Amino acid sequence: MCGKTNNHDDRTNSEITDNEVLNKDSNDDGDDVRTNSEITDNEVLNKDSNDDGDDVRTNSEITDNEVMSREVEFLKEELAKEKEFSERNLSKLRYLMADFDNYRKQIEKQMEAKIEEKRGQLFIKILNIYDDCILALETLKNGKYDSTVIGGIKGIITNFERFMKDEGLVEIETMGTPFDPNIHDAIGFVFNELVPDNTIMEVIRKGYLLNNKVLRPSSIILSKRTVTNKDINVKDKE
């Protein structure tokens, strides 16, 4: 009886052991399959996720590059426009500076001419005073006046002459020279058979040059030969 019971227990234990082993193996294999399946799925998902991220990143980079290229092209066009605009303005400025320089030179010439004109008018007034001093000296020489007075007038005349020389006034040479209407003003004639016609015989008022320009012509008397009937006949025959 007891032996039968032991055999039953042994079987039962054996069955339990086998069942446990089978169940354990079954459970282990299920866990491994599930785990491997989960790992595989996760890897695929991760791979897909990584692939999608790369595509998004690449597309984003391409879009940024296109935007930057367009901005660069736009800036180049704007730079070219600004450069052309600045060159036009620079050209206008150069023309304006040239016009202003010509205007400045013209104004300077006009101012210089005006100054010379006013300066000449002043010198003519001074020359009139000088002429009065010369006339006064001649009058004093012909009369009986004190030598001190005559010496004083001579001193004044000397000062005038020194002043005129310092200022560039040059007396026009007249005596013994041919008549030149540009620098001489003929106010009369004297008959003289010994010299050619239109020879300067006397200076009534001295003339002067200022900067090689006639400030005042010389007032002179010219020679003139007597015309006879013989001379007229000879001229007619010629």
Salient structural properties:
238 residues; alpha+beta; Nucleotide Exchange Factor Grpe, Chain A, domain 2; three-stranded antiparallel β-sheet; elongated; 3 helices; disordered N terminus
Give a structural overview.
- Helix 1 packs antiparallel against helix 2.
- This protein is of the alpha+beta class and 238 residues long.
- Among the domains are: 94 residues; 69 residues, Nucleotide Exchange Factor Grpe, Chain A, domain 2, CATH 2.30.22.
- It contains three helices and six strands, in the order H-H-E-E-E-E-E-E-H.
The amount of helix comes to: over 70%
Based on Cα principal axes, name the global outline: elongated
- The structural class is alpha+beta
Round the mean pLDDT to the nearest integer and report it: 76
Through-space gap between termini: 201 Å
Neighbour order of strands in the largest sheet = 1-4-5
Low-pLDDT regions: 1-19, 21-39
Major sheet description: 3 strands, antiparallel
What percent strand? 5-15%
Q: List the helices and strands in order.
A: HHEEEEEEH
Number of alpha- plus pi-helical segments? 3
Q: In summary, what is this structure?
A:
The protein is built from three helices and six strands. With 238 residues, the chain is an alpha+beta fold.
Topology:
Blueprint: H1 2-142, H2 147-166, E1 169-171, E2 184-191, E3 200-205, E4 208-210, E5 213-216, E6 218-224, H3 229-237
Parallel strand pairs: 2-6
Antiparallel strand pairs: 1-4, 3-6, 4-5
Helix pairs in contact: 1-2
